[in-house]
Amino acid sequence: MKLQKTLFAGIAAVLSTGALIGSNVASAQKDWPTKAIQMVVPFAAGGPTDTIARLIAVPMGQALGQTVIVENVPGAGGTIASTKVARAAPDGYTIYIHHMGMATANALYDKLPYDPMTSFEYIGQVADVPMVLLGKKDLPANNFKELEAYIKANGSKVTMANAGPGAVSQLCGLLFQSRMGVRLTNIPYKGTGPALTDLLGGQVDLLCDQTTQTIPYIKDGRVKAFGTTTMKRLPAIPNVPTLNEQGLKGFEVKVWHGVYAPKGVPQPILDKINAALKKALNTPDVKKRLEDANIDIVPMEKVSAKGLKNHLESEINVWGPVIRKANIPD
Ligand code: MLT
């Protein structure tokens, strides 16, 4: 009898501890966030991904009542940052913004230390960014035809910057070279922020970059624009023809972005991050800044876990064969 009583008391104690832990977890999720949140960016500061991250970090922080701090973790075309985030604590204090490199890395790297389809929680898609094939101001070619002739005459003496294997600048640059049947000298940087600085300084000849930063430089002639990677011309630079209309039929690269968290973040926290992201994308300042760079904010139904996960999966299926066919080296 005495033993039975002790046993019951023990069970009651365990149950009440369990209930206490359960209620602590629930209240931690309810109170979240109680400290600053880190938004990891897989490329160097000053580049397109970093710019979008900093643009949304402020209104997201305001919506959440805590600062969202941007941390740049560049290298290996974004895969170093993806690995870091996949291994981070699933407490909602680490979130991640990455572009379509999340889908292309699968085909570019033999073995990744994470799986884009299972190692993350999906918060939502953000925006689609067009790209432009740019040249330094002093490049002798003034239009696409002249660029073709210049490349034919100079071959591997022509240099092309990119942000490493897995970066969209590399993908765009190598697809361009594959379509032109040439191999230029490709120079990797930690992001297209520093690559653009070198293009402006004349240290490198070509760069395929997103419009996030480049429109003002194209408009005032500090870089040459040889063609957009879109099917239609861009309203901000209507005089720049598409690569498609200049002979590279079907040449289309639009850079989509998504926000992620490590696998295992509790749903109530994911919901709060998602609501903050939606709010940020509807802020007039953010909308204006993105519109000026001809960046499309995705429809709000895509700013969702389902929207991002489905898109990522379909993009892995689209880019895998394209990358293998173009024989893009890692
Ligand atoms: C960056 O933010 O530097 C770019 O998105 C890099 C790239 O993918 O080209």
Automatic annotation (TrEMBL):
Pfam families linked:
TctC
From the record, give the transmembrane residue ranges.
Answer: none
Q: Does the keyword Secreted apply?
A: no
Q: Which SUPFAM superfamilies match?
A: Periplasmic binding protein-like II
The organism's place on the tree of life at top rank: Bacteria
Q: Where is the signal peptide?
A: 1-28
Keywords from UniProt, A to Z, are: Receptor, Signal
Similarity annotation: Belongs to the UPF0065 (bug) family.
Q: What is this protein called?
A: Tripartite-type tricarboxylate transporter receptor subunit TctC
